[in-house]
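PROTEIN SPECIFICATION:
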Amino acid sequence: MVGRYSNIPCVLVASKIDGYVSVNYDNYNGISDAMKYMIRELGMTKLGMVGGPAGNTDAKERKNTFIRVLEENHMSFDENCFVEGNLS
């Protein structure tokens, strides 16, 4: 779709395409800060996540952050605590 409008200046929202300016979410810090608060301040020991579709860039980044923060806090990632949603 973006190719059809290549002669019009544009800014993409929540999409990362080389050669285009985009405004995106800070997935890493948002997920990381929330999880660290739940783990370190609230003492939660079992966290779950409803993510987005596997092919979505933001969803992949959020899931990878979820797993990384669990590991940083000596917690295991359990596939049964992760549900892939469709963002609808």
